[in-house]
């Protein structure tokens, strides 16, 4: 085309554009035609339709006069981009499309420019196109983008695992929490199928979960409402399994967003809870849990059975409602104070059941604290100890009462006498003590048999009791000896009246096994305060008076008199003789073997003291030890005995006789200062193991000063010596007490063993003692076993060890050695 032609067509174009102007002006966009002479210089607008002012803020005429004005309100960066893209489009000679902003008075609008570009012959460029207002669309897009970004951000930072699938079986995204919780990433599981395989390795379970999932999807599309979670056990990448709640939401075209909630901990806690509550409900101990204000929150089934209250009746109440009323406010305050100080309390107390019945319980309370140390709950666990109390009570009764006659025994008598003395001292009154000994009782026993003797004692006990006032005490001292205590005595002669009366009732004929029998007695009387100041003295003096009466002829009574002091003189010479005894080597130890009932082996020997008194012969310990204790001579004798026993144990050990030697302790000796050190020295001096030595104590030794005793016993126990309670059953017999002491063994007193084969009741008591002792982890030795029958019964009751004439009397050390060597290693258990 020639230049002329070209110019003509250009003009033509111009014209046509002008003619089209009116049409253009009505379009919802601004149409333009413009000519670039060369790139880089501003173009010339040949036509701009009339909407330009509204769209670009510059009217069409202005643009046609000054092309530069068209982008007056376009931000610089957009303008640069426009120039850039126009240049590129010019090179390509094609379609130019560009979006840009127009900002007028801080109001931003978006414009879409669209033009077709033609290159003319002279290399100039002509562009015709239109500008459209796309602000509305742009804002919508922007909002969409923003909400997408927001969603993305939430998705990424959500603490909860979330997965998204596209409805075509692909996984679109798994958030970081997902990977953190379960280990898998989108690479591991690009599809739903792969994800199911990852999480549910068991094909059967996988199929089941898949069915559930598709059901959920279907139901969602039916109801358009999400439903409750599906709970599954999902495997993690590291192989662990977690219990997970899965909730899903769906978009109409099948997109799903799935949220996972790991509830493994809750499930485990709930399971533990279930387990605990079953433990609580099956516990035989009552359990009550209170809040910090001591309001009951929870009780178990045993609580309901023991107290009679149902859970509903006690929830929200305080345990006050269980109080028996037998213990005062101070007692409960003390409990609370102990819990506040130490976090716990345990002990015995009396409670009341719903039906009003009061019962003893063993209760332990623990305070539960939170991380800050604040008490949040109290847990009380208790058991009804009625049965245990009753058996302890039975044992105590038997320990204080004579088994045969049911009268108080020596221990209880001594106790009562001490109490009477205390009040007589206050009230300045007198007490009469009558020592009664039957005459020729031994003959009855020998001629008619022990059984008849027993019947006689029972009958006489009844008569004595009946002849006395309620406030008087009659006790059996053992054998055929009884003691009567008469409190509030006005005149000493009143005691004589009672003595005469008693002699009379004893003398009355009695039918015994179809034989009529008459027996008499002799009574010694002694009055407090004239004849003695303490129980020991009063009993000894009335005994002396009784002997005096016996030698003067029987069937009579006699007061203790100063004449009897003649015997006191005797005692003086006894004291002097005893003082010499230790120095002159007159004391000896005899040894009595102790046998293990099950194996039949000799495991020990009890060292029993004898006094080889010049001119008198061998004196048994009962005749001089109480006296030595009274006169303060026992300490040196005890020291000698311990040293001698240790020496013997060492010598035997060298000769292959490895046994424990038991030494008896007296109270004075045990409580003497430096006693524990003395024991340690003796053991060291003879180079023996501490367990070669056993120390025998009586309950009265311990109970005299229990707190001091505990410390001493613990130190001895630490030293390694064995500790045993001698004559168990004749004193306080509180097994409860024993709990607190580190004792290894109890020795059941001979009086029980004597009766065991005769009375079923005694057998039961012995069995009870053995059971309770074992419960406390103690060994049991039976003392004074004389017959095979007794041994059999003890064996049947699972008694561990025995000692008695059945095996051997106490014998000198040399004899013991021979006895030991001739003893069969293992005795048949028949
Ligand atoms: P115990 O410690 O209860 O000793 C047991 C007593 O029962 C011993 O009497 C023993 O000979 C006796 N016996 C053992 N088996 C039988 C049996 O089968 N039948 C009968 N009827 N008696 C049996 P023993 O030797 O007269 O000692 C009496 C008490 O003297 C001892 O009672 C103990 O309390 C005390 N005693 C002995 N030696 C010492 C000692 O060295 N120091 C101290 N403080 N007391 C001692
Ligand atoms: Mg003993
Ligand atoms: Mg004993």
The chain-level mean pLDDT equals: 88
Query: What share of the residues lie within helices?
Result: 40-55%
E-strand count: 32
Low-confidence stretches: none
Distance separating the two termini = 144 Å
Structural class: alpha+beta
Largest sheet data:
8 strands, mixed, barrel
Please list the strands of the largest sheet in the order they lie side by side: 23-24-26-27-28-29-30-31
Q: What is the 3D form?
A: rod-shaped
Helix count from the secondary structure assignment: 30
- Distinct ligand kinds: ligand C2E, magnesium ion
Query: Which value, in Å, is the CA radius of gyration?
Result: 55 Å
Beta-strand share of residues: 25-35%
Question: What can be said about this structure in brief?
Answer:
This protein is α+β, with helices and mostly antiparallel strands. It contains 30 helices and 32 strands. A hairpin with a 5-residue loop joins strand 14 and strand 15.
Which labels suit this protein?
830 residues; alpha+beta; five-stranded antiparallel β-sheet; 30 helices; binds ligand C2E; binds magnesium ion
Could you explain how this protein is built, in words?
- The chain has 830 residues and is an alpha+beta fold.
- The chain is built from 30 helices and 32 strands.
- The strands form six sheets. An eight-stranded mixed barrel has the order 23-24-26-27-28-29-30-31, surrounded by six helices. The chain has a five-stranded antiparallel β-sheet with strand order 2-1-5-4-3.
- A hairpin with a 7-residue loop joins strand 1 and strand 2.
- Helix 21 packs parallel to helix 23.
- The chain is rod-shaped and about 180 Å long.
- The N and C termini lie far apart (144 Å).
- The mean pLDDT is 88.
- The chain binds ligand C2E and magnesium ion (MG) (2 copies).
- Ligand C2E binds next to strand 24, helix 21 and strand 28.
- The site of one magnesium ion (MG) has 5 residues, from strand 28.
């Amino acid at each position: 085309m020639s230049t002329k032609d070209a110019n003509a067509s250009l003009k033509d174009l111009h014209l046509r554009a002008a003619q089209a102007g009116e049409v253009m002006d009505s379009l919802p966009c601004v149409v333009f035609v413009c000519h670039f002479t060369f790139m880089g210089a501003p173009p010339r607008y040949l036509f701009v339709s009339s909407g330009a002012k509204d769209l670009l803020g510059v009217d069409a005429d202005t643009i046609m006069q000054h092309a530069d004005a068209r982008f007056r309100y376009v931000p610089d960066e957009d303008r640069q981009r426009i120039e850039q893209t126009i240049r590129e489009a010019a090179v390509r000679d094609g379609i130019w499309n560009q979006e840009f902003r127009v900002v007028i008075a801080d109001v931003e609008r978006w414009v879409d420019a669209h033009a077709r570009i033609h290159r003319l012959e002279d290399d100039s460029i002509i562009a015709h196109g239109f500008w459209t207002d796309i602000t509305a669309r742009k804002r919508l897009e922007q909002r969409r983008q923003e909400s997408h970004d927001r969603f993305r951000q939430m998705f990424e930072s959500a603490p909860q695992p979330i997965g998204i699938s596209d409805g075509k079986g692909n996984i679109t995204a798994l958030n970081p929490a997902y990977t953190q919780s379960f280990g898998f990433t989108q690479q591991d599981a690009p599809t739903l199928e792969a994800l199911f395989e990852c999480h549910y390795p068991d094909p059967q379970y996988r199929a089941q979960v898949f069915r559930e999932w598709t059901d959920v999807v279907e139901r969602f599309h039916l109801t358009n409402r999400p439903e409750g979670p599906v709970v599954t056990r999902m495997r993690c990448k590291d192989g662990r399994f977690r219990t997970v709640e899965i909730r899903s939401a769906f978009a109409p075209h099948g997109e799903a967003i799935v949220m996972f909630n790991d509830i493994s901990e809750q499930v485990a806690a709930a399971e533990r809870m279930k387990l605990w509550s079953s433990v609580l409900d099956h516990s035989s101990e009552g359990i009550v849990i209170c809040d910090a204000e001591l309001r009951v929150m929870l009780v178990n089934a045993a609580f309901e059975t023991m107290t009679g209250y149902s859970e509903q009746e006690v929830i929200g109440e305080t345990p006050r409602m269980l109080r028996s009323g037998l213990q005062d406010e101070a007692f409960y305050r003390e409990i609370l104070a102990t819990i506040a100080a130490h976090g716990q309390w345990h002990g015995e107390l009396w409670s009341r059941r719903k039906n009003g019945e009061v019962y003893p319980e063993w209760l332990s309370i623990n305070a539960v604290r939170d991380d800050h140390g604040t008490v949040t709950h109290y847990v009380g666990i208790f058991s009804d100890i009625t049965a245990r109390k009753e058996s302890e009570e039975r044992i105590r009764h038997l320990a204080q009462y004579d088994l045969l006659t049911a009268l108080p025994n020596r221990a209880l008598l001594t106790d009562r006498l001490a109490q009477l003395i205390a009040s007589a001292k206050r009230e300045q009154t007198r007490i009469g003590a009558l020592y009664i000994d039957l005459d020729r009782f031994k003959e009855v026993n020998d001629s008619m048999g022990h059984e008849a003797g027993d019947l006689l004692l029972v009958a006489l006990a009844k008569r004595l009791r009946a002849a006395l006032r309620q406030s008087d005490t009659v006790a059996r001292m053992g054998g055929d000896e009884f003691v009567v205590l008469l409190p509030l005595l006005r005149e000493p002669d009143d005691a004589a009246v009672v003595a005469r009366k008693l002699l009379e009732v004893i003398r009355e004929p009695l039918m015994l096994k179809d034989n009529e029998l008459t027996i008499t007695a002799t009574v010694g009387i002694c009055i407090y305060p004239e004849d003695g100041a303490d129980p020991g003295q009063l009993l000894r003096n009335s005994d002396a008076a009784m002997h005096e009466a016996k030698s003067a002829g029987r069937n009579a009574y006699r007061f203790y008199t100063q004449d009897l002091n003649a015997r006191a003189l005797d005692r003086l010479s006894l004291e002097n003789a005893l003082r010499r005894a230790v120095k002159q080597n007159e004391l000896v130890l005899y040894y009595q073997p102790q046998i293990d009932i099950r194996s039949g082996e000799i495991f020990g020997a009890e060292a029993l003291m004898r006094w080889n008194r010049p001119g008198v012969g061998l004196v048994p310990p009962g005749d001089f030890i109480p006296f030595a204790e009274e006169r303060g001579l026992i300490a040196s004798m005890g020291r000698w005995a311990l040293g001698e026993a240790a020496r013997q144990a060492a010598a035997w050990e060298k000769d292959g006789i490895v046994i424990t030697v038991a030494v008896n302790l007296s109270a004075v000796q045990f409580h003497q200062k430096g006693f524990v050190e003395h024991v340690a020295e003796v053991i060291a001096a003879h180079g023996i193991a501490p367990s070669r030595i056993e120390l025998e104590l009586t309950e009265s030794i311990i109970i005299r000063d229990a707190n001091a005793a505990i410390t001493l016993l613990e130190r001895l126990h630490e030293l390694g010596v064995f500790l045993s309670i001698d004559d168990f059953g004749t004193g306080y017999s509180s097994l409860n007490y024993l709990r607190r002491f580190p004792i290894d063994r109890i020795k059941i007193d001979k009086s029980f063993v004597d009766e065991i084969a005769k009375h079923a009741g005694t057998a039961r008591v012995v069995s009870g003692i053995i059971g309770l002792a074992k419960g406390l982890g103690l060994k049991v030795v039976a003392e004074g076993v004389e017959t095979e029958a007794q041994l059999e019964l003890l064996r049947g009751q699972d008694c561990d060890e025995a000692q008695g004439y059945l095996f051997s009397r106490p014998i000198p050390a040399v004899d013991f050695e021979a006895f030991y060597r001739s003893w069969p290693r293992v005795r048949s258990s028949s």
